[in-house]
Please model this.
Amino acid sequence: MTKSREIIDIFADIARGLDDVDIIVTGYDSQSEEQKVKDVNYIFGSAQYFKDRLDELSRTGTAFKFPALVLFCPVQETRNDPDYYSKAKVNLLIACGSQQQWSNEQRKAFSFENILRPLYRRMLALLAADNRLDFGYASAIKHEYSENYSYGRYGAYVDRSGEAVSEPIDAIDIRNLELKIKPLNCRI
Model:
């Protein structure tokens, strides 16, 4: 069966591949526990949709909110090159739950070192290994990377509405990740 070449579907596959990453989760009592990621909450849409989805999961009491991989949409694809199905630059967020009272030093250890960076490294490995994608001979996955420490302390806000996400998160922002998706006639 041929795998989908649509970007939303590619990242759904990547999110499923993040389920075996070893992370260390720190609870409200600052006690830590090592575990494997069982599922990653994959969300695609606008920042407002991400906020609304987290709010909905909070209202229904669903515990499965984090870690989350968010693909911001819409994604502008260029489909005018016969050598590629499409080309695009995508924006992503890898997020985990946080505590507002944590210092940046705690945030660095509990969120970034123990959860977010391992997920980020695994995501890059999965992208590099995905036969639908072409990163060139150097296999360099071009993107901008930013660790955002302010989301957890001051809140993450939706750009247009100014509404805050209902709970503190820590996140890695990935901007302008360059994708070249091979055409359907390539073997995968």
User: Anything to note?
Assistant: The beta strands are 22-26, 32-36, 41-45, 68-72, 77-78, 86-97, 144-148, 169-181. The CA atoms of residues 41 and 64 lie 7 Å apart.
